[in-house]
Amino acid sequence: MQILTHLCCGPCTAYPLRTMREQGHSIQGFFFNPNIHPYREFKQRITALEALAEKMGLEVEYEREYGLTEYLRRVVFHEEQRCRLCYTMRLEATAAKAKQIGADAFTSTLLYSRYQQHGAIKTIGESLARQYAIPFYYQDFREGWQRGIDMAKAMDLYRQPYCGCIYSEQERYDKKFRKGKK
Ligand code: SF4
Hints:
This protein is of the alpha/beta class. The chain has 8 helices and 4 strands, in the order βαβαβααβαααα. It has a 4-stranded parallel beta sheet, with helices on both faces. α1 links the parallel β1 (2-6) and β2 (26-31). The model has no long low-confidence stretch (mean pLDDT 96). The structure holds iron/sulfur cluster. Iron/sulfur cluster binds at residues 35, 82-83, 86, 163-165, 167-168.
């Protein structure tokens, strides 16, 4: 199958890409992540993905517009639901693009991360598959968590310390916030 794959970042791409290629699929990458803030972090993740794409011979279409405003308009006043809204934003753009280019299916490297809400990503992907009439390729790539990390290290890729949005950046670095969560 030709699978349009939403890429959240370079490190999370390594294992799913290798696995799907080993299964005989043809992979085309799509970087669409308006959730990544601040701007310098957004640029850094694109640079890391470009490095991986070159090393692994992957064709990628990049949405290089910084999506802070669009992302915030979706999540403000809905912060508790922000991850679901964030997955929907990114997967919906991927499903629409997959349909537009005539791919056989779409998927996401979000299915690789142990830190994401895996069940929600699967549910949203399957729902969008029905809406856009294109299959969502599901695989639990978390099985290759350590292998993916090893691949990213071997390629010397930048590995980000937080998920992406400004909320997750605060959760990672604000000690008072982290104390309050305990
Ligand atoms: S924590 Fe990650 S998945 Fe959740 S809203 Fe922020 S960037 Fe998106």
